[in-house]
Amino acid sequence: MSDDVDLIADMSIVVVDDSRNFLKLVTSILRNFGIKDCISFDDPVQVIDFLEINTVDCLVTDLVMPKMNGFELANRIRHSREVVNRRIPIIMVTGHANRENISRAINSGIDEVLVKPFRPNDLRKRLYAIAASPRRYIKTSNGYFGPDRRRSRDKAYFGPDRRLVEDVDTIDPRSGRRPDNYKLAVRRKAAAAKAVPAEAAPIERSLPEIGPRPKRSDVFKVRRDNAKSAKRPATPAKAAKQRKPSQQSAENEDVWEI
To answer: Quick one: pLDDT band at residue 108, thresholds 50, 70, 90?
Structure first.
């Protein structure tokens, strides 16, 4: 657990929720993890304004909020030209984790979903997964931009990758400089390179050689030979009956001589 805390201690996190009590709870949990750079908002519009100037390593947001819900906030971040880092990992916390909301969260570009009520260890695992095993971000032809919705890659697929992948590094369009979290971005990029397996060479399979079909008479001959070789040995009584008379008399004479 110490390695998990050391890895996420340098992260900068933004928390947004319309409930101030929940903001205090999440903020205190993050500070217990050793995260000092933690900023909270109760208005999602203020979060958009903040992300247009600053860069952070993670965003923790609620689903049901006034003015803008968690889905709309994620869409604004992923597709806005003004946001500095559109690839910011997003964790959505909700008490309405039905199948429809989970599907909408995935299609909105949200990285992780945390169900209320949750334990501090659950939040720590989500943060560690974001820092240690970052997901690559893709852009599809239907307008989706966000983390790759496939958790694993099919090793048996050797065809072309039709998804466009963007680099982890982010450059501020205003200043042309790297953001403050550039070191964390470099670590994520290195971890992503190790996590993606190298393409394996296709397996060459050769069919066994098939000779001409044997004749029907040869097949029956082999079967007869096998049947003769597998014939059971005769019992002692049957063997005695099969002996010649001279051999039986010779044995009787030997017995009377004794």
So the answer is: very high
